[in-house]
Design brief:
Keywords: Membrane, Secreted, Signal, Transmembrane, Transmembrane helix. The chain has 583 residues and is mainly beta. The protein folds into 5 domains: 91 residues, no CATH class; 107 residues, Immunoglobulins (Immunoglobulin-like); 81 residues, Immunoglobulin-like (Sandwich), CATH 2.60.40.10; 111 residues, Sandwich (Immunoglobulin-like), CATH 2.60.40.10; 101 residues, Immunoglobulins (Immunoglobulin-like), CATH 2.60.40. Helices cover 12% and strands 41% of the residues.
Length: 583
């Protein structure tokens, strides 16, 4: 037997022995505590042939092939090495539900004492004294405090490994009038159970000093709008509210017969002072800071609501028009109070989109001026186009205001008709209202119920129908324009009372939804009857400033009447003369 063959057989025997010894060790895992491990190294033969070095671990019990236990569960694959050095990664902290974490919180105020009008800072530290990982760790504070947001912990919380800590700050103000502030600062994790919840919360207290001040003031009603409190303008018995301070509170008082008020013993800070308005007078808000110095003196000026002193009317010169004509919108303003300047109006339309030039009223800088006791009239041309023929009407809304005085606003509107077109079919749904929050919602349909449209001007019933089992109704051959919707039976209309019909409406796309609720029984107005024709507009509409067509023909009518009377007198004279001749 050659030396090469002997060496090969020796290497094979050693490899086989290593496999037999190592196999139960892989399956068995790390040796139990208390057992010892030894490392045996086969010496290298001094030959010209390749040599093999093997590292093995021999124990009295099942053994392992690594120098240190890896903590790999039985039955899972492991890695081995022939260098004698461990290769497993450093173990991480377990996060399983069975591994406990132990959170402990400490907290303290940044300063030993505070004033009520100062920002207060709280610092807290959370430490994980357990062996497991705590996920989503958050901190909260309960008490009379304006904030509970800790930026360092955020809304999702932080992760704390075993032995780790995290700190955060809370900044806010006290929200109650007291000589101290107590906060319960606590911590929690998003999952798992704390091994020792007794140290998850701590109560801290700090002294609070409430520094106080006051304010005084006077309320007057500026009847002549001169910006000065004159004799007789004192506003007595008016409620005044001061809201603010630190901590925030609302305080109320009532003016004396001289219009004076005062607030004493107020916590320092910024206040909004408002005077309760009434039906005739408006009082603007006032901002004031109450400090440790002298009390501020306020003067509150009351101004009459614009609608109380300015009467407005809006109308068209005619009721009906044809496309291509120009309507005249007349605006009349009468001032019963002191002279007012800067009066303006904004406008919007329904049923058409004409452009309106309101002249002086279009901009409050400078706006229109209304002298005391005077009436001013403004005329606005309104072109009538084909779009209004489709809708059958035009409604103009005007909102009047006096921004220089901040004395409120009010609205007026006027409607004209453009009759002639008709809608072949108009469909809709009659249903109950479901829910009241967030606007009307369509509820159960109302079947087998008579509905109708009534002419807004003359009051005649135009069309009627009966809803089907699904609450749907259909009108046919309906005049365009604005109509009044009616329902027969114990119902009260909630929406859809004013019913607009357009000639271009497509029944498949446009649906009118009318919502009702139980209410008093509504009578049946009967079948549709003949509708009085709308007043026929003249062939050419009057120009702005010209008299109405009927007024313009007044002289012709008078001369026709005189001529008729003369003819009648002549006829009577002829008959009388003939009788005398016969006699």
């Amino acid at each position: 037997m050659s030396r090469l063959g002997a060496s090969s057989r020796l290497a094979a025997a050693i490899a086989l022995w290593v496999g037999v010894v190592a196999t139960p060790a892989w399956a068995a895992g790390p040796p139990p505590a208390g057992e010892t491990t030894t490392t045996a190294t086969t010496p290298t033969a001094t030959t010209d042939e390749p040599t093999t070095t093997a590292t093995t671990t021999a124990t009295a019990a099942p053994t392992t092939v690594t120098d240190e236990p890896t903590g790999t569960p039985a039955g899972e694959p492991t890695s081995t090495t022939v260098t004698g050095q461990p290769t497993a990664e450093e173990p991480t902290h377990p996060t399983g539900s069975g591994v406990p974490f132990d959170l402990r919180v400490t907290a303290a105020f940044e300063r030993p004492a505070y004033r009520a009008d100062e920002d207060i800072t709280v610092r807290a530290t959370v430490t994980n004294n357990g062996t497991g990982v705590a996920e989503g760790v958050q901190v909260s504070a309960r008490g009379d405090f304006s904030s509970d947001y800790w930026p360092e912990f955020g809304y999702q919380g932080v992760r704390l490994d075993a032995g780790a800590s995290a700190s955060g700050t809370l900044v806010g103000r006290v929200t109650t009038v007291a000589d101290s502030l107590s906060l319960v600062v606590s911590t929690r994790a998003s999952g798992g159970e704390d091994a020792n919840p007794a140290d998850d919360a701590v109560t801290i207290t700090v002294p609070i000093t409430v520094v106080r001040g006051g304010m005084t003031g006077r309320v007057y009603r500026d009847t002549d709008l001169d910006g000065v409190s004159d004799p007789g303008e004192d506003a007595s018995g008016v409620e005044v509210t001061a809201a603010g301070g630190s901590p925030f509170r609302e305080y109320r008082t009532t003016t004396t017969s001289q219009g004076r008020f005062s607030f004493e013993d107020l916590p320092l800070g910024a206040y909004s002072v408002r005077t309760q308005p009434d039906d005739d007078w408006f009082y603007p808000y006032t901002q004031v800071d109450v400090g440790e110095a002298a009390s501020p003196e306020l003067v509150v000026r009351g101004i009459q609501w614009l609608e109380r002193v300015v009467a407005a009317s809006v109308s068209f010169d005619r009721q009906t028009y044809r496309p291509g004509e120009t309507a005249v919108l007349t605006i009349s303003l009468t001032n019963s109070g002191a002279t007012r300047s800067g009066i303006a109006a904004s406008w919007s339309t329904e049923g058409g989109t004409p452009h309106l030039d309101l002249g002086e009223l279009r901009d409050w800088r400078p706006g229109a001026t209304l002298p005391t006791g005077e009436t001013r009239v403004f005329t606005v041309p309104v072109p009538i186009d084909g779009g209004m023929a489709d809708t059958g009407y035009l409604r103009v809304h005007l909102t009047f205001s006096s921004p220089l005085l901040f004395s409120g606003s009010f609205s007026r509107s006027a409607v004209l008709r453009v009759p002639g077109a008709r809608a072949p079919r108009v469909v809709g749904l009659l249903a109950k209202q479901r829910g009241a929050q967030g606007g009307p919602l369509i509820g159960d349909p109302v079947p087998n119920t008579v509905v109708y449209l009534r002419d807004q001007v003359g009051g005649a019933v135009l069309v009627r129908a009966t809803t089907d089992a699904a609450g749907r109704f259909e009108f046919t051959d309906v005049p365009v324009g604005l109509h009044d919707f009616g329902v027969v039976g114990p119902w009260r209309l909630l929406t859809g009372r004013e019913f607009a019909v357009r000639a271009s409406d497509t029944p498949d796309l446009v649906r009118h939804v009318v919502l009702v609720a139980p209410g008093p029984d509504q009578p049946d107005p009967g079948q549709p009857g003949p509708v009085p024709p709308a007043p026929e507009p003249p062939a050419t509409g009057p120009r702005p400033g010209e008299p109405d067509a009927l007024a313009a023909t007044g002289a012709d009518v008078l001369w026709s009447l005189v001529a008729g009377l003369l003819t009648l007198a002549a006829g009577a004279g002829a008959v009388f003369a003939a009788r005398r001749r016969l006699t």
